[in-house]
């Protein structure tokens, strides 16, 4: 009887877990191994009869200046977006965690960009950035500033795209941080207030240390998400744009090689480079987190 009950528990446990596991295997695990395999091949004509080329794709990658430019663009975008997003998210979360009127409405408004389709968001921003009739240049013109070419100027374009990234993700990070703030017991703040600690001291001595596990999760996931930026750059910058080389990301380069130039082997090699970079950054974060993340 005990064995029967035990097997029933195993059966139902695996039954409930199975859809997720099957999805992970089909959509994540198998594609990873297929990408590794393809990185050693050159795509044949019409995508058929791939030719084994060994390490030739990797040799080409290390000698391709466009790949290293795309790597720098991706890292630069991440360095622009992640710190600013997290700082803004912390400020907004702290403000909206206070007892203010309409805070639930504000939370919804800030989270809305995360719900909207990335393509729709980018198209709206593309209109805002338009040199001739965009709203931003219209407002700047009213105060006597000449129109700025936000999209095609190689010196500005990546910053323009980073603004979209910050605007799109700050709401999501804010919600996660807000959830972390609500887990902090009020007893700590009451005791600190009795001891005469200012609001600023309470923030640095109580809020940040107790919020550090949530912040660590937000930092890791934000970096991974930023390193995979594609939609906004793809929709903003075509391959003929003067700012293309200064904005193309590794995922965009992978897309172009795999689908526009029909070279899935080289595209897979670019993805392997991105995977190695993300793994390296994540491992460094896992090591460093022991010094600043406080669990309980």
TrEMBL record:
GO terms for cellular component: plasma membrane. Belongs to the binding-protein-dependent transport system permease family. CDD domains: TM_PBP2. It is a multi-pass membrane protein. SUPFAM superfamilies: MetI-like. Residues 71-285 form the ABC transmembrane type-1 domain. It is found in: Cell membrane. It comes from the Bacteria. This is Sugar ABC transporter permease. The lineage of its organism: Bacteria, Bacillati, Bacillota, Bacilli, Lactobacillales. Keywords: Cell membrane, Membrane, Transmembrane, Transmembrane helix, Transport.
């Amino acid at each position: 009887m005990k064995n029967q009950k035990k097997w029933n528990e195993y059966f139902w446990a695996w039954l409930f877990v199975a859809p997720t596991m099957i999805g992970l295997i089909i959509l994540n695990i198998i594609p990873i191994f297929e990408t590794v395999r393809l990185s050693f091949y050159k795509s044949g004509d019409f995508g058929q009869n791939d030719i084994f080329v060994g390490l030739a794709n990797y040799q080409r990658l290390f000698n391709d200046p466009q790949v290293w430019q795309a790597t720098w663009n991706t890292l630069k975008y991440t360095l622009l977006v992640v710190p600013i997003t997290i700082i803004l998210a912390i400020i907004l979360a702290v403000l909206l965690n206070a007892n203010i009127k309409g805070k639930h409405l504000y939370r919804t408004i800030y989270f809305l960009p995360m719900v909207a389709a990335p393509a729709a968001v980018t198209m709206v921003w593309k209109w805002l950035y338009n040199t001739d009739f965009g709203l931003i240049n219209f407002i700047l013109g009213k105060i006597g500033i000449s129109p700025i070419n936000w999209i095609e100027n190689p010196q500005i374009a990546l910053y323009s795209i980073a603004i979209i990234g910050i605007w799109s993700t700050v709401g999501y990070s804010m919600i996660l941080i807000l959830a972390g703030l609500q887990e902090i017991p009020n007893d700590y703040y009451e005791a600190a207030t009795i001891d005469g600690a200012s609001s600023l001291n309470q923030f640095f001595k109580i809020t940040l240390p107790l919020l550090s596990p949530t912040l660590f999760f937000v930092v890791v996931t934000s970096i991974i998400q930023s390193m995979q930026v594609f939609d906004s750059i793809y929709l903003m910058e075509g391959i003929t744009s003067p700012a293309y080389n200064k904005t193309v990301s590794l995922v965009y380069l992978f897309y172009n090689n795999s689908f526009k130039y029909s070279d899935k082997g080289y595209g897979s090699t670019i993805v392997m480079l991105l995977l190695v970079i993300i793994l390296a950054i994540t491992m460094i974060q896992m090591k460093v987190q022991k010094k600043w993340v406080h669990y309980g």
